[in-house]
Every structure is written in structure tokens, then in C-alpha cells.
Write a structure and sequence with these properties.
mainly alpha, single chain, 65% helix, globular, 96 residues
Amino acid sequence: MLRYQYNTYKIRDQNEADLLADPNPFALVVLTVKTALKSKSLHKDELLDLKLSLAKGLLNSHLSKSKVRRLLTFLRYYVRLENQQQMINLNKRLIS
């Protein structure tokens, strides 16, 4: 009998504050996925604020520019905003 055994990692069970404080870039990926899971129950302004805080956390991290760019791209496509105006608002708020 062949049996496979895997470790599991439950994203919904992860603490957001711990993920934000973790220097490991994978923590931000997990936080992005957790945000996407929650996005269905959030108001569009709350989702925009969450995405903004994730992006600012990346920009203020110790990571290289290339890693930050790749993670921001992941964030952009994984957590979708409803319309183009929200993307414009996000970009304006990131610049300021």
C-alpha cells in the first residue's frame, strides 16, 4: 500500500500581525492570499486599504528592489480591485 503524507499550512489560521512582522517574504505572500480570501466579504474601500498596507509594507521592507517588484506584481494580480479608478487611487496613495 502506497501512502502519501503532507504537511499542511492553513492560511486562514495565520495571525495577520505576525505575518506583517515576519521578515520572510513568504509571510507577505501568505498575507496577500489571506487578503484575497477575505476580499469577498470586504467593502471595496476596506480592500483598497488592505492592499495599500501590504504594498507599503513591501516598499518599507529590507527586500531587494527586484523581489519587491515581483511581490507587488503578485499582489496586483492576486488581489483584484473592482475597477480602474481603484487602481489609480492605490497608485496615488502609494506615491504620496
